[in-house]
Amino acid sequence: RARSEGLTPDAVMYSAAISACQRVQKWEAALSLLSDARSQGVTPNVIAQNAALSSCEKAARWEAALKLWADLKDAITLEPNVVSFTALIGACGRASHWAACLDLLDEMVRDTVSPNCITLDAAANACERSGH
């Protein structure tokens, strides 16, 4: 819509739109907007990236979250922070993929990102759900 009104979407506009999609649980729209931003030469900021990851988490789309994570890392645009990791661990945890959660905790340490209690709770819940 912004383009039709003569506006050139930037990282802030994409971030707001992706965050709105996340709030109303439209994970596919969030991923589509993130893809559109990149195709338009706009580098999504960490807020947009986290909102897209969180939208996948809330929709229990762990595979989409992992694919997005890999795509963002390959594109060297991901600036992971505790919110990024927590969303991804939450998405994997909802599907009881405890090993992926533990791998992500290891990755956090390597990336010098400190987990918080929400991150650790999400990983612990994944282990509990799967009996580990």
From TrEMBL:
<dbReference type="InterPro" id="IPR002885">
    <property type="entry name" value="PPR_rpt"/>
</dbReference>
<keyword id="KW-0677">Repeat</keyword>
<feature type="repeat" description="PPR">
    <location>
        <begin position="81"/>
        <end position="115"/>
    </location>
</feature>
<dbReference type="Pfam" id="PF13812">
    <property type="entry name" value="PPR_3"/>
</dbReference>
<feature type="repeat" description="PPR">
    <location>
        <begin position="10"/>
        <end position="44"/>
    </location>
</feature>
<protein>
    <recommendedName>
        <fullName>Pentacotripeptide-repeat region of PRORP domain-containing protein</fullName>
    </recommendedName>
</protein>
<dbReference type="InterPro" id="IPR011990">
    <property type="entry name" value="TPR-like_helical_dom_sf"/>
</dbReference>
<dbReference type="Pfam" id="PF13041">
    <property type="entry name" value="PPR_2"/>
</dbReference>
